[in-house]
Amino acid sequence: MLPWVFAALAGFLLIGNLLLSPHLTAPAVTTWSTIFVTICVQAIPFLVLGVTLSAAVTAFVPPSFFERALPRRPYAAVPVAGAAGLVLPVRECASVRVAARLMAHGVAPPAALAFLPASPAANPVVLVATAVAFPGEPLMVLARFGASLVVAVLAGWAWQVLGRPVPPRVTTAPPVPEGATRRAAFLAAVRHDFLHAGGFLVIGGLAAATLNVVVPRSWTTSLGEVPWLSVLVLALLAVVLSVCSEADAFVAASLTTFSPTAKLVFLVVGPMVDLKLIALQAGTFGRAFAARFVPLTLTLAIVVGVLVGRVLL
Amino acid sequence: MAQNLVLALVGGALLRVSALSTAYLNYVRPGFRAPLVAAGVILFALGVFGLVQEWRRPYPPSGEAATRRRSHGPRVAWLLCLPIVAVFLINPPALGSFAAARDQRPQPRPAGGYGALTGDAPTAMPVGEFIGRAWSDGGRTLAGRRVKLTGFAVPSEHKGQWYLARMRLRCCAADAFPLKVAVLGVPAPRPDTWVEVTGAWVPVPYDRLPKGTAAPALTATALAKVARPAEPYE
Question: Is residue A312 within 8 Å of residue A300, measured between CB atoms?
Fold first, then answer.
């Protein structure tokens, strides 16, 4: 059936090009489509790079590497795991798999939980994308990096201090591919992760274009004048849109009427808490875990984001 | 199958706007062509490679259910067809007067530090430089000079004037903001017409601007239609 769907799509594009294109010239439509296509076009190269590196790390770096690298004591292991997360480009969904694998191999849960938000939030690819999205504003990159690291470490420690309220339930560790199948696993991961992240990128692009063109400018301007409200709105937007961390800086940059602090909160919250991650964490570690870990990281991300924004931006 | 087709299509659309045309200049900064071409080639190759692999393996190796599950990519991936449709159907142009007119914020005040202009002929300069010269150092470098600016026409809410505008990119067209100069003395062209205006700055320094002024003004002496430049943004 699928080939026919695509044949129909191709036919639609060819005929539409002749019949519809001359009529799709209303300024609002073309402006909306320009912003939508721009966000997709600008973000896809970073997405490809991030997906490729992330798949390489998950396919070729064995969990024993982390076991050897991490200190035994949980309080010391948390910052190291957080820092490892910042260096290794592991994407949102992959980082849940990696964290589950780490716990299955006996790494202290708080350390694995520090890795979980740190890696997608501020790895090198994400920081380069942020620098490109905010040219001439190096403080935005620094603020994102710092705030994400602080949130990750605080989340890990809070979990330890609170006495590990609910043990994350890891039923089965995802298998680590071996030898010849690694290459196939790598390609399959690239393919799957790109399509998954690309789909959410499109949602982000649709939202950004609509906010820019359809929503009256006076609304977003007056919203931007109430600092705490604009922070909460962008935090909520980050949770709902679920744009991946390589691409969210471009969505944030398009929200030109919002304050830098609100944009920073968008960038810190997005990679740590969003709808797809909540579903994934609940599925991997259990509902009881997600019901506690998600509000914890969300609160920390908003508070730390606002504080760092106050100081740096 | 569906996964690989979507990948190949996305790669093809990327190559169409970057390698096969200059449409990418409507969306991103000129230096971004190489990453776009690279990403397009990778996605296209990944998709085609996957399709070839599936073609050469006609029978499911380990049970039909397993194959069916594997070939189902994430559902959200179907959304990637939307930008492809937009690229092929709407062929999104560079941002124009609609976007420029929506953004009513006053022009940002530049730092200054411009050198003196020389020569008798009208000096051609970017719109951003004109705003910078007009609003820094009391506009000294523009006093008594004639300049030539190129941009597109934007209607104004005030009578007897219109705006000559150029969009400026920070990262890409998604965060573009308009550089505007109010033009007096010549009738307004149709919105989005690209024109070259010759004229002189209306000498009102930044400190003495009436409240609510959004842009410096120019009294035009000549107006000529020009072709849209290859790089539409400043």
Answer: no
**What is the rounded average pLDDT of the residues A59-88?**
80
What's the gap between Cα B110 and its chain centre? 21
Whole-angstrom distance, CA of residue A60 vs CA of residue B65: 29
Q: CB-CB: which of A34, A195, A253 is closest to B170?
A: A253
Alpha-carbon gap, residue A182 to A95, rounded angstroms: 18
Placement of tokens 């470098």 in the chain: B141
Q: Which residue of B has its CA nearest to A203?
A: B79
d(CA B184, CA B161): 5
With beta carbons less than 8 A apart as the criterion, state whether B152 and B96 touch: yes
Cβ–Cβ below 8 Å for A195 and B28: no
CB contact under 8 A, A135 and B99: no
Distance CA A74, CA B61 (A): 45
DSSP symbol at B118: -
Which chain A residue is nearest to residue B171, measuring alpha carbons? A133
ipTM associated with this complex: 0.91
Asked if A299 has any chain B CB less than 8 Å from its own CB, the reply is: no
Greatest Cα-to-Cα distance within chain B, rounded to the nearest angstrom = 83
CB contact under 8 A, B5 and A2: yes
Which tokens in the block code for residue A286? 């259990």
Measure in Å the smallest separation between the Cα of A221 and chain B Cα atoms.
Answer: 10
| Contact assessment for residue A281 and residue A289, using Cβ atoms and an 8 Å cutoff | yes
Beta bridge partner(s), residue B200: B219
C-alpha B90/C-alpha A178 separation (Å) is 47
Read off the pLDDT of each residue in B48-52 and give the average, rounded to a whole number: 90
pLDDT (tens digit per residue) in A113-161:
888 888 888 888 999 999 999 998 999 999 999 999 999 999 888 888 8
Q: What angle do CA A305, A118, A194 make, to 5 degrees?
A: 110
Which residues on neighbouring strands pair with residue B152, listed in sequence order? B165, B194
Q: Is a pLDDT exceeding 80 seen at residue A218?
A: yes
pLDDT digits over A197-210, tens only? 999 999 999 999 99
